[in-house]
Amino acid sequence: MPRPLNLAFLALASLALAQAPPRVSQERLRDHLEFVASDLMEGRDTPSRGLDVTALYLATQCKLMGLRSVLPGGSYWQTIPLSQPRVEADSLVFEVNGKALQAGTDYAPRPTQGAAQGEMVYLGNGWVVPAQRLDPYQGVDIKGKIAVVNGQTPDGVSLRRGSQTDAVAPAQAALQRGAVAIVQINRLPGAASIESSYRQATQSRRASPPGEPGGATIPTVTMTQAAADAAFGQGAANGEMKPGTKLGNGRLEIKVTGTDVRTQNVVAVIEGRDPQLKGEYIAIGAHYDHLGLANQGEDRVFNGADDDGSGTVSLLEIARVLSLPENRPKRSVVFVWHTGEERGLWGSDFFTKNPPFPRENIVAQLNIDMIGRSRTSPDPDPKFPRLTARNEVHVVGARRLSTELGDVIWAVNKKTFNLSLNTAYDAPDDPERIYFRSDHYNYARYGIPVAFFFSGIHEDYHRVSDEVEKIDFVKMADVAQTVAMVAKELGNRKDRPKVDKPIEGGR
């Protein structure tokens, strides 16, 4: 269990700016990360006390470095309203062919208010993916009916973030076609995750952007595989049933009450030194949120040292280096610590929709997410083949909108540490579709050239074992310094990087 929060630690940690080195410092990265990824931050969930304390730490560091605010009232926090919906347990109804199912045992509701009844129709996995020619709704009339989907996902599509931009999730696809409710069969057998989901839905543990409770707008429940087998037969859960099969009649009722909460991006600016160019901005970003606390286990804290503590503290050091008189560029530099990335890119979506200055003044965006790990052997691990070596980093999207931005990054890298810049994730047929799955994409969809720096997935990704002692601070400092020098070059160039490629995915 995490210890009680000690704010004296925060105060002491904010006094370490004296005798700062002129380039990104491994020691300072470690000092910052030992705070940001400590158990005291309780996993930095969105929203949470630990995330707010981390935001306070970041804002304090920005003040101490002399970075200025561009937000109303001189604040460094860009407040984002959220709703924390809670399902009223006593109001729940879910019946299949007149038989009532047990909430928390047979099914869990999503926080999606409404009542529906009607014929139940099976629709396979429920995803519509034009690029894969997948459309289980073709030839099936779902209007006014309850859609039943099996909880599986097509290859190349992420449940957490739509990694294929033309993919339409079951909730949206069914709603678009007139369905009145959705029943999803749990992908895992047993009721343990159903129990957890039920507690979460009825105890108001998960927030959503206003108007998007749980990501769906019609009554939605998730059944255990055992309950689905009993109600519909085994063909529904295992995917052997044909889309369009009628499953009888169903009835759902879900009542939701909401509590208004909030989270925040942290935003700070180094003002450019050129009177003509300081109205343009180089944006550098990282997400400072993570996954919070696990439901059980001796170690319950998702510390997120690499994801994305590494990017979070690298931004602090990049800001310090670029604020030095010899490094301050002609253009301004805006640093955005995005919130809610793990929940669906909330912070970058909000910032790009509500920028504190004209969005068209953003010249380029450099995104840093997970740059703190390296493989420990010369040969890649078969389980994690894309985890990069110490002198290597993935650069994603640098030439997707602007050939010139890629040219700048490669030229600057050659003059600094000459890291091996891996572009494997930019392959058009790459199944992971990383370009669409982190905060940079919310800038790219507005035509802003982006580049995403990323070391790759490792064995501690999204596990409580993502701890500070596993971080490669040598690599992290080298990547951060390279990003700083790229930003400096972009900030000093006469012209902004030319956009010569089409926007992928759109707005």
Report on the architecture of this protein.
With 507 residues, the chain is an alpha/beta fold. It is built from 12 helices and 16 strands. It has helices at 7-13, 26-36, 49-65, 170-176, 192-202, 225-232, 234-237, 305-323, 346-353, 403-415, 440-444, 473-492, and strands at 77-87, 93-96, 99-100, 107-109, 114-122, 146-149, 181-185, 220-223, 246-254, 256-270, 281-287, 332-338, 362-368, 392-396, 420-422, 450-454. The strands form 2 sheets. Strands 1-10-12-11-13-16-14-15 form an 8-stranded mixed beta sheet, with helices on both faces. An 8-stranded mixed beta sheet has the order 3-2-9-5-6-7-8-4. Helix 5 (192-202) links the parallel strand 7 and strand 8. Helix 2 (26-36) packs across helix 12 (473-492) and helix 10 crosses helix 12 (473-492). The longest helix has 20 residues, at 473-492. The chain is elongated. Mean pLDDT is 90; it is low at 13-18 and 160-164.
